[in-house]
Specification:
about 15% strand; two-stranded antiparallel sheet; 8-stranded parallel β-sheet; globular; 10 strands; about 280 residues; single chain
Amino acid sequence: MSASDAQTLPTVPFGRYRISRLIMGDNPIYGYSHFNQLLSEHQKEANTSDQVMATLRRAEEVGVNAWQNTLTERSAADLRRYRDEGGTIHYFCLSRGGNWYDDPSLIDEAATHEPIGMAPHGSGVAGRCLKENRLGHLWDILKRIRNTGAMVGLSVHNPRLIDIAEEEDWDIDYYMTALYYLEGAREEFERKFGHPPLGEVYLREHRDRMCRIIQNTAKPCIVFKVLAAGRSVGSNNQIREEFAFALNNIKANDVLLVGMYQKFNDQLGENAAMVAELCQ
């Protein structure tokens, strides 16, 4: 895909912005592989600051106009460099694990990086508040985000949390919705087999429930774990099938969040072309 093809990737309204239907995540960039420590270390080593700049520039070329990452010292430095070099991709901020749960004042610090949207982590903050029956604490975190002027996002792994937020009409601008509920899948595995699994468990049936919830909310959704954290990338046809399933089962104003790794092939160009074709 050349720079001239960039406009083939459609955009949709997202608050006062327009966001491409495919946006970039940061897991493969900063070594959150969801597989094992060896792959994570490989990803971190491959993604020098220069490589991250090249990846972001390639995203611009193919029409991906938003990047969501977990705010760390390293990712913040890359974001500053990218902007200093003229980069214009929109930035969505996700909390680092449970740090906003422990210290909500970090939200104000995160806002200094000028994200267009901010969300507490789906398991480390939102899921933890649900599990510990501390939804009041989660409301306070969301209010603090609102006070920064950024769009308020809620990242969700457990679909029940969206049910609650919708029923109670929480002050939220968008959801981040995981197609796979990893903690729930692990619990189901243990109930069935009597012992914990080795590694993460992805259950296909979880996608159907989350997609029904996505369709039933008027709020735009950033849909993630589309490729099951790299478990559904055995071929281009399989990747296309996963993208097609997601796009056919979410709303027309929702977007796909996909981590892309430029080490071995042009995943940004290939994925953008697939999404653009499927959206036609």
